[in-house]
Amino acid sequence: MTQAGVQPTFTEKLFDVMDRIEYRRITSAEDFEDVSNLRQKAYEKAGMHVPDNGGLFVDEIDFDPQAHVFGVYCDETLISSLRIHHVTPDHRVSPARNLFPKEVDAFLDAGMTLIDPVRHASDPDVFDDLPALPYLTLRIATMAIEFFEAERCLSFVPPRHVAFYRRVFGSKLVAGPLINCPGYNIDFSLLAADVPNELPKVYRRYPFFRSQPFERRMMFAPQEELGTMPLTIRPTARYLQAA
Prior knowledge:
By secondary structure, the chain is of the alpha+beta class. The protein has helices at residues 10-18, 29-45, 95-99, 101-109, 133-148, 162-169, 195-205, 213-220, 223-226, 237-242; strands at residues 21-25, 67-74, 77-87, 114-122, 152-157, 172-178, 188-194. Strand 2 (67-74) and strand 3 (77-87) form a beta hairpin.
C-alpha cells in the first residue's frame, strides 16, 4: 500500500496484481483442453510451428512423471501456463536437452539436478493490462527450484528474450542461437542460471518470487503425499514480504 500521491513501485504494483492470481495444477482433460487452446493462441501470435497432430498443443511429455503443468488464473480466467520438468541424471526428459543435448548432458553428467521450464504460453490479449504476467508465470520456476533443490535452471528462449533472463535471473548463455529449430520454426538460445549463487539475488531484487514451503508443497508434492489435490493455490509472497 502506498501513500496518497506517491507512485507505486513495480514490486508494489505486482503484489497488487498477485492478490487476483491463483495457480492450478493442470490434470483434467478439460483443463488440458483450455491449456492447449491458450498455447495455440500464444504460439501462432509468436509465429511458432503448428503441430501436425490435428492442431493439438498437448504432447506426450505433458504427462511425463517428472513434468508438472500449471495454469495461472486471474479473476478465475486462464491467462498463462507453464510446464516444469524436473530433470535428473537418471531421468533426462527435457525439451531443452532435445535441442541442446551436449550442453544439458554436461550438467547432468556432473550430477546436477535441473529445472527446465517450458511451454510458456501467455494470452496475448492481456499483456496491455498485465505487463507483469511473465514474472507471475515464471514465479512457478523459482518454486520448483526450491522444492526440488535444483542446481541449475535452464531457459531455451528466442534470442530477443535472452536479455530478460540475464537481467532477472542472472542466467548465462550456454549455447546458440540455434537457427530455425526443428518443430518450432523459430531460433532458440540456451541459458542456465547458477541457482545457489543467483537465487538469493533474485529474491532481493524481486521479492514477489519468494514463496512459503506449504505453497511449494501444494504445487509439486505427489498426490499420495497430499491426499486431496488442491483446487487452487494462492501466492504467499506478500505474507513473506509483510513478515
